[in-house]
Amino acid sequence: MSLENRREIIFLYDVIRSNPNGDPDDGNRPRMDEYGYNLVTDVRLKRTIRDYWIKQQNENLRVLIQQRFKDDQKTVMSMGDIVSAELGYDDKKKPVREELLDILPERYIDIRCFGAAVTLKGANVSITGPVQFGIGKSLNKPEIQTMTITSVMSSGGEKGAGAIGTFHFVDYSLILFHGIACEYNSKETKLTKEDMFSVYEGLWEGTKSLNTRSKFNHNPRLLISVISKEKEFQIGGLDETLTLVREKEIQKISDCKIVADEFVEKLLEYKENILGIEYKESGNIIYLYKDQEKNSIRELFEGTGLDLTEL
Question: Which of the ends of the chain has fewer CB neighbours closer than 10 A, N or C?
Answer without folding.
Answer: N
